[in-house]
Amino acid sequence: xxxxxxxxxxxxxxxxxxxxxxxxxxxxxxxxxxxxxxxxxxxxxxxxxxxxxxxxxxxxxxxxxxxxxxxxxxxxxxxxxxxxxxxxxxxxxxxxxxxxxxxxxxxxxxxxxxx
Length: 115
Known about the structure:
By secondary structure, the chain is mainly beta. The chain has no helices and eleven strands. The protein is about 0% helix and about 50% strand.
């Protein structure tokens, strides 16, 4: 089955860290660049970060630069998002997304930043 499955979300205090993972299956993972996208409560989708097929290039939304790090392991078919210095405004459902066509999304993992 072609799918993306996110994990690693949870409740964290402001200033804390979380590491999200996305496990891919059913397709040739290293044929695709990957990204993370989030959706805060009551808001639209917001692009977070992207990584090229081989991990050689990474991209971040301005508000995530210096706090988030995207990485991938093509041997394990996973893409990760290390999130540090988390803020309440980072609270959202985080989705893993395969770039290119056909589009493919995971089910999302909830991240809540609150004291």
